[in-house]
Amino acid sequence: MWQAVAALFGAGFTIVACYAAGSLLIDRLRASLRQDERIPLAFVLGAACLHLAIFAVLAVHIAYWPVLVALLAGIIAAAVITGAWRGAHTESAKPVPPLGKNLRMVFGWCAGVFAVVYLVNAWAPEVSPDGASYHLGLVARELRVHGFEPLTNDMYAMLSQGVEMLFVPAFAIGRHSAAALVHVAFAIALALAILAYGRRIGKPWAGAAGALLTFASPVAGADASAAYVDVATAAIVFGVFYWTEIWDDHRDELRLLIPVGLLSGYAYAAKYTAFPIAIYALGFVAWRSRRLRPIGKRPRPVSQSLQAVLLVAGCALVMAGPWIARNWIWYQNPVAPFANSLFRNPYIHVMFERDYSEFLRNYGMPSLRPLALEATLRGGYVGGIIGPAFLLLPIALAALRFQAGRRLLLAGALVFSTYFANIGARFLIPALPFFSLAMGLAFAEAAPLLAALMLLHTAASWPPVLNRYVNQNCWRLVRFPYKAALRLTPPDEFLRKNAHGYAAAQMVDAMVPGNEPVFSMDGILDAYTRHPILVYYHSAANETLADTINMGWNPAAQPIMSRVFSFPERKVRRMRVEQTAQAAYPHQWNVYELRFLNHGAELTRKLDWRLQAWPNPWEVQLAFDNALATRWRSGEIASPGMYLDVDFGREESVDEVRLVVSGDSELTRLQLESMNPSETWEKIADNPAVMYQDVPKGIRRMATYELHARGIHYLMIADKNNGAEDFAEDPESWGLRLLGHTEGERLYQTIW
Fold this sequence. Notes:
single chain, alpha+beta, elongated, 5-stranded mixed beta sheet
């Protein structure tokens, strides 16, 4: 039971600190807000500020739980002492009519029931796939080492972690469930903010409908109840919009743009795909500040409009800048793990980014034509649904007759603009507040229709009803685990039954000593193990390890041929092999070994040889390591101009060059060049001969030896992985020992 109390306390402490931080800033800015506006807006704004403070704590490696508790307590104490907790400027805001009885009843009951379901699911042990893997896995790791560390083998560690920063103190106090409960607070704050906005524009029924359409959306509920970040991102994005509206009512008060800028940057820190809200904010401020009165009697060299835009941009940079700088310093890429063809680095292969991005654009769907039905009714491909009510989204165009409707649809369209980069249903959540409110405004004068829409949406989104029409693979809430939430059901029992990957994580902790890394072809729940889990696709280094392992069982990837250049003996200092053909996707150029010979004897490789490659120069050594279990790969589609370049450091006599390659390299065309005394490249030969050879004996052991030599002594293979049967049937031929088998995962240890 104490675990349940700790989870509530950890979440509550963090939530209160967020509200306190936001209240301090709002009072400092002398912003006049109604109480119904102040609560959600202060919480979201305070979350942005607190996230930056926790970032600093992690950056200087003092993330111990007493430090985190002291930070939260200090913020709360400051708010109480200064009176910001009560809200010094709350009462001066423009009054609005109270909510009607019917509206309170419809919205209150519907939202209240869903809030209870979300809270109970969040309070139960964390079972979500991403929440229990990388979202909280990174948080747990940061707390173990008390700060940030460059994780070059995990692309998810490269993403900004704006919301996860709030999970840090919650997790330190109340573990996994506390983080999920913090996310529920964002969902409630978002619903309250949408409702308050409806009152602000004099359309309370539209606000209530917009709030409920978003809050009761099935994918939003599943997301909010887990340690995810999408609903939090939606609250942040809507907060940007709300503060632009507040500033627009007091355009001479530039200080009110500070929250706009801070939240615009925080949106990027929460999720890269939320960056368009900053474009909306900057554009809106530039447009609406054109006719601002000058400050003081003397003209200023910089226009008031430009000052407003620069203030927003500067505040946004305060929030987003630390994440951009971190990535630039650690990963040589400010937007890692994306844009690797622009910001080339050794950590993510360009080919992987292309493959991954292509999958996110279609999720395996043969065609995007049924996407609307997938996202609203089925959810099998896109991992959830937003609800059938959103099939009525075209009616939102009727909201264009209102100024508020035009602004909502513009902001919503900008936020939605990144959706087709990842068509998962949860990537629609940040745009839902805008589209939901626009749908409400379309029926702004018809309260009965809005009430009917709210009730129908609530009924269609109720979990037992969802089960009747969604795909069985649709991500949704399927239980009301109150016993698990109260810890009447032991957490271990609940997790083993409901969290796939938990038992495998526990097996790793039980059988792998210390904090040794485990290489995995599938991935498990990182947040429930103390060991680094190196998933095969999470980085360039991991992909190289996977390629080495797969070579042991996959004939297409084995070194079965050599491409041989023969020519009259010549003395050369520098030679290169250039690839001249344009291959088709997904063919890369790969080379197991590049050998230089003279009269049949291979030149002995020396330390002063200078090796270069383009692209992927960081792995060039793999073509010169005398290991037929490893290969250099271009990391992108083979194209003209790629090369492997060797400077011997002195003149050497050479009459033959061999490239050991695999059978999947047939689409490449090669030519051999040497550098002449005038330091220009001279073609020596092309069309190399092809010589086939037997696969080396013991190729499997050679593969696992390479992992062992790189400090990887434990390997996790899922029964569903390609080649899994080969490992299971004869692990000894791989140089492996089977340690355990659970949940379709086999844990092996190298026996070198």
